């Protein structure tokens, strides 16, 4: 029977054992058509969701794309841009060859050139610069450095220091806040198992990795998790939140510090985690050199040092209701070690001192010990597959 499907939950897919030869009726002629189903990736955003390319056995053309149920991130679900990948395959305006400018810059005149010519021309220019010792005239700019360090090694081997990517501009604030805590520059929240999910604009779920993440946030909600969103806009995610706050841009750190002070004041600090993982002795030595060097004294002093970050203080700075901030603090306290938090770009990138927003947000994870726990927030490198060089 053409078009046999396997049902997984609310979705259905051709069974994987049929992927080498899967028959489906042509939607127009209703004649059976034979496909190979080839797993591939959508690259219309950085989620990199899985797709299955339906390749026609007859002429090896790609007829359509559907979700790949075996992909661990997207699990067969895609947004509309995934199946629309077929338009890119057949777009008559796609660029098929390298092009070299032949007219004035900006005149839009190009000629096609071969890859051999490209490599000779650009490689030759780089080589001459290196031989002449003009390393500072070579700059490598990449949109997204997804090769995990390989290009950096090449540049270092050349003695070139000119590696840039858009990430240096838009996410360095967020990364700095996290790096100061743990050496890793990104968080990886375990949404599916969280009790409280705290998201700060512009978090990935508003549009960056939204498909795989949104699925897991909705799973958590079904299991009773609460979602809090701080975002100027009533974004798609904010519209699903139990608590939405729209703070004055750049004031978010004040809110998080008020929540931190609440946690300390009310004994919601995970002492075991803090004692093991935080440099509390250095804190005391630097800020309270005359105090006894023990953990309980550290907690007392820390609580005193942060006491002035009250809900009223944060409400005044952030232009939001103090009661809402207290509500957030209670949600964070209730999560314990299952607090999944996230921020990316926006607030951390668009404001002076924005890196402190990421830093103060992760402070809440540190205080509650929700780091590397089920439902907590992980250093991203722990969950990321990175191929190691020999
Ligand atoms: S979320 Fe949509 S555009 Fe992004 S990778 Fe997945 S299917 Fe493609």
Layout: helices, strands, pairs:
Blueprint: E1 6-8, E2 11-13, E3 22-25, E4 32-41, E5 50-56, E6 62-67, H1 85-90, E7 99-101, E8 110-112, H2 115-131, E9 140-142, H3 150-158, E10 163-165, H4 167-170, H5 172-182, E11 187-189, E12 196-200, H6 210-222, E13 226-230, E14 243-245, H7 252-265, H8 271-277, H9 280-287, H10 295-306, H11 311-318, H12 322-335, E15 339-342, H13 346-349, H14 355-368, E16 377-379, H15 380-383
Parallel strand pairs: 9-10, 12-13, 12-15, 13-14
Antiparallel strand pairs: 1-2, 3-4, 4-5, 5-6, 7-8, 11-16
How many H/I helical runs? Answer: 15
Gap from first CA to last CA: 49 Å
Domain module count: 3
Q: What ligands are attached or bound here?
A: iron/sulfur cluster
Note the beta-strand portion: 15-25%
Explain what you see.
With 390 residues, this protein is an alpha/beta fold. It has three domains: 6-90, ADC-like domains (N-terminal domain of TfIIb, Single Sheet); 99-167, no CATH class; 183-383, Dimethylsulfoxide Reductase, domain 2 (3-Layer(aba) Sandwich). It contains 15 helices and 16 strands. The mean pLDDT is 91. Bound molecules: iron/sulfur cluster. Residues 42, 44-45, 47-49, 74, 78-79, 81-82, 211 line the site of iron/sulfur cluster (SF4).
């Amino acid at each position: 029977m053409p078009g046999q499907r396997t049902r997984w939950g609310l979705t259905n897919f051709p069974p994987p054992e049929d992927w080498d030869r899967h028959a489906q009726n042509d939607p127009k002629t209703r004649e059976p058509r034979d496909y190979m189903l080839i797993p591939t990736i959508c690259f219309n955003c950085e989620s990199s969701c899985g797709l299955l390319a339906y390749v026609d056995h007859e002429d090896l053309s790609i007829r359509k794309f559907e979700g790949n149920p075996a992909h661990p991130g997207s699990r067969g679900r895609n947004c509309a841009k995934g199946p629309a990948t077929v338009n890119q395959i057949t777009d008559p305006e796609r660029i098929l060859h390298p092009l070299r400018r032949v007219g004035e810059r900006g005149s839009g005149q190009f000629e096609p050139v071969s890859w051999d010519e490209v490599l000779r021309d650009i490689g030759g220019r780089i080589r001459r610069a290196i031989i002449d010792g003009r390393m500072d005239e070579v700059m490598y700019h990449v949109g997204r450095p997804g090769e995990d360090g390989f290009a950096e090694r090449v540049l270092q081997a050349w003695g070139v220091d000119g590696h840039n990517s858009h990430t240096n501009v838009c996410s360095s604030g967020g990364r700095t806040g996290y790096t100061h805590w743990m050496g890793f520059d990104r968080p990886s929240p375990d949404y599916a198992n969280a009790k409280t999910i705290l998201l700060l604009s512009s978090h990935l779920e508003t549009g960056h990795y939204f498909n795989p993440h949104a699925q897991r946030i909705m799973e958590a909600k079904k299991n009773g998790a609460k979602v809090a969103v701080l975002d100027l806009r009533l974004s798609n995610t904010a519209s699903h939140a139990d608590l939405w706050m729209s703070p004055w841009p750049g004031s978010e750190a004040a809110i998080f510090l008020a929540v931190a002070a609440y946690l300390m004041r009310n004994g919601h600090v995970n002492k075991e985690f803090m004692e093991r993982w935080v440099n509390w002795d250095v804190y005391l030595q630097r800020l309270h050199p005359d105090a006894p060097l023990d953990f309980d004294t550290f907690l007392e002093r820390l609580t005193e040092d942060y006491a002035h970050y009250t809900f009223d203080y944060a409400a005044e700075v952030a232009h939001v209701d103090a009661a809402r901030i207290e509500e957030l603090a209670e949600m964070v306290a209730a999560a314990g070690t299952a607090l999944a938090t996230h921020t990316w770009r926006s607030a951390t990138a668009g404001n002076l001192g924005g890196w402190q927003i990421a830093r103060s947000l992760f402070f809440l994870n540190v205080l509650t010990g929700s780091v590397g726990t089920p439902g907590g927030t992980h250093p991203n490198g722990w969950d990321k597959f990175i191929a190691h060089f020999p």
